[in-house]
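Troubleshooting: if your tokenizer reports a length mismatch, compare against these two reference records.
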Amino acid sequence: MADPAGEFLQPELSISGLPDRGRVLCRGFIESVTYVPASQVASFTAIVTDHDVPRSKGGFAAVAAEPPTARKPGGTGRRDRLRVVWLGRRRVPGVDPGCELRLEGMLTFRDGLPTMFNPRYEILSRQENQ
């Protein structure tokens, strides 16, 4: 039997507290989004962190120049980012840098980052235009 919509039976985790694999429920802020050109297969990617990204005066999200830190399965490194990928979509309305999301889905590792494909999501808050 399916869970009723909007009811979560498992505890909500922070991005830095995610396990290596498995079904998880977490909450975080969108740090950045990636749009692919029309010539490539449709997908929409967002990077999620535990904290809100500072905004610049122009209203765009400031993205750190350093590479994201990640922990490989079995490793001891720090993990503070989650990659979320929606396959078959070029855009997800309301998912923009600075917005807060609750995500539920299967967690795996791809290219050194914890990754969730096509998660169930809820938009909790959005950044106001400055």
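Reference record two:
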Amino acid sequence: MNGLNNRERSLVSLGAALASNCVPCIEFHIPGARRAGLSDREIEAALEIADKVRQVPARAVLETALARIGSSPDDMANPASPDCGCSGSDSTSGCKELT
């Protein structure tokens, strides 16, 4: 990130912190953004944009979940993938089906 100035690095950090839902990161990066010269309005605008971007996949997940409610039991027996993908395809980690 040597090609970015401190303001730009702060904006990237704020977006990543919001996207990862990391409260400690937000608490750390907002003061850093102020030290980099960003105003509270600029920080707020960056957070608003990051939140809009973050909502796109969240909305897709919600739509998928709502669509699955109407699925038949046979459809549920054959999910789109063998695991949920939380921790990759390693069968020893990630979510497990509750039975």
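Descriptive notes for reference record two:
- The domain at 6-73 is CATH 1.20.1290.10 (AhpD-like).
- The CA atoms of residues 16 and 68 lie 30 Å apart.
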